[in-house]
TrEMBL record:
Name of the protein in question: cysteine desulfurase
Cofactor(s) the record lists: pyridoxal 5'-phosphate
Keyword set includes Iron-sulfur: yes
Reaction equations catalysed: (sulfur carrier)-H + L-cysteine = (sulfur carrier)-SH + L-alanine
Keyword rRNA processing: no
Aminotransferase class V domain sequence ranges: 4-365
PANTHER family: CYSTEINE DESULFURASE, CYSTEINE DESULFURYLASE FAMILY MEMBER
Classification via NCBIfam families: PRK02948.1
InterPro entries referenced in this protein's UniProt entry, alphabetically: Aminotrans_V_dom, Aminotrans_V_PyrdxlP_BS, Cysteine_dSase, PyrdxlP-dep_Trfase, PyrdxlP-dep_Trfase_major, PyrdxlP-dep_Trfase_small
Similarity remark: Belongs to the class-V pyridoxal-phosphate-dependent aminotransferase family. NifS/IscS subfamily.
Superkingdom assignment: Bacteria
Length: 381
C-alpha cells in the first residue's frame, strides 16, 4: 500500500539537499565554533554564513539572530526573557487564546510568577480583533505575543496592524512564525516585529534547530546559563551541521515560495472539489482567504475525530486532528474551542490536511477520495 503524507504542519521530510549539506559539514567541519584554532574557525565560518543568509530571509541583521533547539525554545526564550528583563516597567502580557502551547504554557508559568496575562478571544475565522487588542493594552503592558499563522486552522493574524498599534507603546511585540515562515514573505522591519520564532523542521530542515530574531537593542535575559555563545543569549555549543542544514532549507524555501503557494492552492481546490462531487457534508474551519497556503482544517458532521484518524491511517493517509504536540489527548482542540465554543461539534469532528514536499495532485485526489469513503462509512453507522 502506497502511503500518503498530508501532515506537513506537524513535521516535514528533510530535503535531499539539506541532508547532503549536513553530511558534508559533519564530515568536514567538526570543530567547535568557539575554538580559535583552524578547525574552530572553519566551523565558525559555516555558522556565520548560515546566520547571515537566515537573517536576510526576514530583513534582519545577522547579529539579531540566535539559534535555538527549535520553536518551543525560541518562544520560551522570547517570552520569559523579555518578561524578566522588563518586569520593572510592568507585569502585564497580552496573547491570544489560540497560541501554540509553547506560548500558552509559558504564559501560564509566568502567571504563577506574578505576571498578569490577558488572552484575546478570536472570531469564528480564528482572527483576533484589533479593537480588543487596543482595549487590552495598558500602561504596564510589556509584551504582546500573537502568532503569525495558526498551526491548526491556518488563520493569518493582522501582524502589520498589530505592529502599528504597538509602534508608540512600550510593549515588545513577539510573533510565533513557525508555521508561516518559508511560505509567507516576512520583513520584520516593515511589520514592526521585535521578536520572531522559527523552527527548521517545518520547512524541510532538521529537527532540533530553530532561531529567534531579537531586534537590536532589545533587552532579553538569558534562559540558559553556561558559555557565552550566541552573544551571551543562549549558552551551549552550537549544532553546526543542523544550522548548516537549516540555512540550506531556508534558501530552498525562499526560492520556491511562490511556486508552493500556487501548488498548495491547487491542492486545496482538488480536495474540496472531490468532497463537493461526492456530496459530502463538510465545513471549513478558519478563513480560506486569510490562511496559510499549505493548511486546511475541515469539519465532517456526523463523524468522530478519533475514528477518522484511525481509519485514515489504516487506509494509508496521514493527517492530523490539529497540533502534533497534543497527539493522544482526549481533550478537544483549544483552537476550535476558542473559535466555536466548547460545545460545538466541530471540536470533535475536524481534520487537518497539510501539504508539502513530494506531494502530488494525484496523491491529494486519492487522499480526498479515501476521505469520502471513510466519512460515508462513519456517517452511516
Amino acid at each position: 500500500m502506497d502511503r500518503i503524507y498530508l501532515d506537513h504542519a506537524a513535521t516535514s521530510p528533510m530535503h535531499p539537499n539539506v541532508i547532503d549539506t549536513m553530511m558534508r559539514v559533519m564530515s568536514n567541519d567538526f570543530g567547535n565554533p568557539s575554538s580559535i584554532h583552524a578547525f574552530g574557525r572553519e566551523a565558525r565560518h559555516v555558522l556565520d554564513e548560515a546566520r547571515s543568509s537566515i537573517a536576510a530571509s526576514i530583513g534582519a541583521g545577522r547579529n539579531e539572530i540566535i539559534f535555538t533547539s527549535g520553536g518551543t525554545e525560541a518562544d520560551n526564550t522570547a517570552i520569559i526573557g523579555v518578561a524578566n528583563a522588563y518586569k520593572e516597567q510592568g507585569k502585564h502580557i497580552i496573547t491570544t487564546e489560540i497560541e501554540h502551547h509553547a506560548v500558552l504554557h509559558t504564559c501560564q508559568y509566568l502567571e504563577k510568577s506574578g505576571f498578569e496575562v490577558t488572552y484575546l478571544p478570536v472570531n469564528e475565522a480564528g482572527l483576533i480583533s484589533i479593537a480588543d487588542l487596543k482595549a487590552a493594552l495598558r500602561d504596564d503592558t510589556i509584551l504582546v505575543s500573537v502568532m503569525f499563522g495558526n498551526n491548526e486552522v491556518g488563520t493569518i493574524q493582522p501582524i502589520a496592524e498589530i505592529g502599528q498599534v504597538l509602534k508608540d507603546h512600550q510593549a515588545i511585540f513577539h510573533t510565533d512564525a513557525v508555521q508561516a515562515y518559508g511560505l509567507i514573505s516576512i520583513d520584520v522591519r516593515g511589520l514592526g516585529v521585535d521578536l520572531l520564532s522559527v523552527s527548521a523542521h517545518k520547512i524541510n530542515g532538521p529537527k532540533g534547530i530553530g532561531f529567534l530574531y531579537i531586534r537590536e537593542g532589545l533587552k532579553l535575559n538569558p534562559h540558559l546559563y553556561g558559555g557565552e555563545q550566541e552573544r551571551k543569549r543562549r549558552a551551549g555549543t552550537e549544532s553546526v551541521p543542523a544550522i548548516a542544514g537549516f540555512s540550506e532549507a531556508v534558501l530552498i524555501a525562499q526560492s520556491t515560495m511562490e511556486k508552493k503557494k500556487e501548488q498548495y492552492k491547487q491542492f486545496k481546490d482538488v480536495l474540496l472539489a472531490v468532497f463537493d462531487e461526492a456530496d459530502v457534508q463538510y465545513e471549513i474551519n478558519g478563513s480560506m482567504e486569510q490562511s496559510l497556503p499549505h493548511l486546511l482544517n475541515v469539519s465532517f458532521p456526523g463523524t468522530n475525530v478519533e475514528s477518522m484518524l484511525v481509519n485514515m491511517d489504516l487506509a494509508g493517509v496521514a493527517v492530523s486532528s490539529g497540533s502534533a504536540c497534543t497527539a493522544g489527548s482526549i481533550d478537544p482542540s483549544h483552537v476550535l474551542v476558542a473559535m466555536f465554543g466548547k460545545d460545538s461539534e466541530r471540536t470533535k469532528n475536524s481534520i487537518r490536511f497539510s501539504f508539502g514536499l513530494n506531494n502530488t495532485e494525484e496523491e491529494v485526489r486519492q487522499a480526498a477520495e479515501t476521505t469520502v469513503k471513510i466519512v460515508n462509512r462513519l456517517v452511516r453507522r
